[in-house]
């Protein structure tokens, strides 16, 4: 920058000398020497870095330095561009001594809507308003997922292809016309979700341990998909992918059970799970096999048969989902038809407008030329013509020219209005397409939510009943006792059934909305006293206060887990040991948790009733 300034100063002085203003040269030199140091040293001399490409393009902004293989440059418009360092040159702005040496990259939130990118990067970059990043292709399609990397030639992306499927895709840069980016925090969340899908989706690392279902025959279910995992025999008439997903989730939940009761467990299936696709088939099979009475509940555990029986409205779900799939396909067809109309109108209107304007322009030139020719001939013959006759003929020619040009102008305005009306129609169709696309997005989200809610309700039932099987075949066998107190067994069953397995395959307890509402309706005075709750037997627990009993048992476990971290302290096993030794549930509880039960009760009621309903 110093050399550049000296050269510019020298050129200016030489130019003045060549104009022979010698009497002012000394004064000019004095002023130049006085002003030059501030010009050279002031940090405000250059207001921006300047990047020049090999194609002769020049951008102003801030050089963010080389990161990885690319030089990052933020333009004055707020767009971060990437270039190969050997293909560009950068003139760095002068900065004060105390200025930071390098500036952090711009956050995606700072990107302006509809920001444009220079020709080196032939696509627009905007902020995404959805949960995914998007790549808009020149063909008009949009791909959703997570952008992994962008180079001068191509963009790599993890594409979301379904609820449990991720595909890797690469797109040439010249096929992209737009990119929608997420903020860093949103990108991190999306990365976690993609890692979860890669691990637990079909073909993922987690699924490898449960194997592949096979078609077979079960004496109760009949022809079905069968799958045996480390701890479960599963037979179901639902979809193969659903059976496999259930197997994985059950193994993950088994590990969650084990994290609360760390007792020795053999890697042998300890319970059989039968899944019927509808209540009708479930009831028919139960009757045919003379099993227990088939109560209209989502599922139940049969200790004597070491079996969990559950039914789910998979057939109804499939029919409802198919309805939405058909509706989605119809909306997509209508959108495609509208786009064809818009493209045809846009192309036809533009072509016709160009042809009409070309015709009008040619006729305008012909009118002017004809009038000019007539005047020229009139002037040639004007020597022998009376002046008044000359003026009369000239006025006639000019009047004809004016009328013809007025008619041309009228046609021009009418053509412009027609083109404008066509464009307005196209804009209205674009709005209609946008509305249809919004409807399509809502239908797709609802269809996905159907599957999510369906799986969630099914898993809640299985998590609950499998816990009872775990108590019978793992805890009872290890502890050699009659099992768990009723509040503890049912409370944990509700606790597990309302929990989720996170990205790291760790149990995350969730608020049981229905149970919490029951507790809030009961209020502080309506809750069961804890001294009574911990003494409940099966007969009392399933009596008149059954609903409140289940809710409060869940609430109390949820509270203890938050306050005492049941998973890491082996407190529940210690409580069972203390109960065997003490014989009294209250004394055993106070011995394990080293607190008076009345004190815990006061804190529990205040805490659980203050929980928000999610």
Provide a short characterization of the protein structure:
The protein is an alpha+beta fold and 614 residues long. It has helices at 2-18, 25-41, 184-200, 240-260, 279-288, 314-380, 387-479, 486-497, 513-526, 530-533, 538-541, 546-564, 566-569, 571-582, 585-593, 597-609; strands spanning 49-53, 58-67, 70-75, 80-83, 88-91, 124-127, 133-137, 142-150, 154-162, 165-172, 176-181, 214-218, 222-228, 232-236, 271-276, 299-302, 307-311, 499-501, 507-509.
Gyration radius (Cα, Å) is: 40 Å
- How many discrete domains? 5
The global form is elongated
How many strand segments?
19
Average pLDDT reading: 74
Largest beta-sheet details? 6 strands, mixed
Helix content: 40-55%
**How many separate helices?**
16
Class computed from helices, strands and strand pairing: alpha+beta
Instruction: Give the amount of beta strand, in percent.
Output: 15-25%
Ends apart, CA distance between termini = 61 Å
The low-pLDDT segments are 1-46, 94-121
Coiled coil: 328-373
Protein name: DUF1570 domain-containing protein
Domain DUF1570: 460-563
Keywords: Coiled coil
């Amino acid at each position: 920058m110093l050399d550049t300034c000296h050269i510019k100063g020298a050129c200016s002085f030489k130019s003045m000398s060549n104009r022979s203003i010698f009497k002012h040269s000394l004064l000019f030199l004095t002023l130049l020497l006085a002003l030059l140091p501030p010009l050279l040293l002031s940090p405000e001399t250059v207001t921006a870095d300047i990047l020049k490409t090999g194609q002769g393009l020049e951008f102003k902004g801030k050089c963010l330095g080389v990161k990885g293989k690319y030089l990052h440059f933020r333009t004055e418009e707020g767009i971060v561009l990437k270039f190969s360092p050997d293909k560009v040159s950068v003139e760095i702005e002068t900065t004060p001594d105390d200025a930071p040496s390098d500036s952090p990259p711009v956050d995606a939130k700072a990107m302006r809507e509809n920001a444009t990118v220079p020709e080196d990067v032939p696509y627009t970059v905007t902020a995404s308003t959805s949960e995914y990043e998007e790549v808009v292709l020149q063909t008009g399609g949009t791909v959703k997922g997570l952008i992994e990397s962008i180079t001068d030639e191509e963009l790599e992306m993890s594409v979301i292809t379904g609820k449990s499927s991720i595909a890797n895709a690469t797109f040439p840069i010249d096929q992209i016309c737009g990119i929608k980016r997420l903020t860093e925090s949103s990108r991190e969340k999306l990365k976690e979700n993609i890692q979860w899908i890669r691990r637990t989706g079909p073909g993922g690392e987690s699924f490898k341990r449960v194997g592949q279902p096979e078609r077979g025959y079960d004496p109760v279910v009949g022809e079905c998909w069968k799958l045996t995992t480390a701890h479960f025999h599963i037979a179901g008439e639902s979809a193969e992918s659903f059976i496999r997903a259930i197997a994985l989730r059950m193994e993950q939940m088994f590990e969650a059970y084990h994290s609360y009761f760390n007792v020795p467990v053999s890697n042998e299936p300890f319970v059989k799970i039968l899944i019927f696709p509808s209540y009708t088939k479930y009831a028919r099979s139960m009757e045919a096999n003379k099993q227990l009475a088939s109560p209209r509940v989502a599922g139940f555990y049969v200790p004597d048969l070491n079996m969990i029986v559950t039914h789910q409205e998979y057939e109804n779900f499939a029919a409802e989902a198919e309805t939405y799939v058909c509706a989605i396909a119809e909306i997509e067809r209508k959108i495609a038809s509208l786009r064809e109309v818009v493209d045809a109108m846009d192309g036809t209107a533009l072509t016709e407008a160009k042809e009409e304007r070309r015709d009008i322009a040619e006729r305008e030139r012909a009118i002017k030329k004809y009038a000019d020719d007539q005047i020229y001939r009139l002037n040639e013959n004007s020597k022998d013509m009376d002046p008044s006759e000359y003026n009369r003929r000239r006025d006639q020619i000019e009047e004809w020219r004016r009328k013809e040009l007025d008619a041309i102008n009228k046609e021009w305005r009418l053509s412009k209005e027609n083109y404008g009306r066509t464009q307005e129609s196209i804009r209205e169709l674009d709005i209609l397409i946008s509305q249809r696309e919004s409807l399509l997005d809502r239908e797709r989200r609802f269809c996905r939510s159907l599957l999510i809610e369906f799986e969630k309700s099914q898993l809640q039932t299985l998590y609950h009943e499998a816990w009872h099987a775990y108590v019978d075949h793992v805890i009872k066998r290890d502890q050699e006792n009659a099992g768990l107190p009723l509040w503890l067994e049912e409370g944990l069953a509700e606790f597990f059934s309302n929990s989720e397995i996170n990205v790291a395959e760790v149990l995350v307890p969730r608020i049981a909305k229905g149970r919490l509402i029951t507790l809030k309706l009961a209020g502080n005075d309506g809750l069961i006293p804890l001294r009574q709750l911990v003494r409940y037997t099966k007969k009392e627990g399933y009596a008149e206060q059954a609903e409140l009993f289940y809710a409060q048992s869940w609430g109390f476990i949820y509270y203890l887990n938050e306050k005492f971290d049941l998973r890491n302290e082996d407190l529940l096993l210690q409580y069972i040991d203390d109960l065997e030794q003490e014989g009294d549930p209250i004394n055993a509880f106070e011995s394990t948790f080293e607190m008076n039960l009345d004190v815990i009760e006061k804190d529990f009621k205040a805490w659980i009733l203050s929980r928000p309903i999610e």
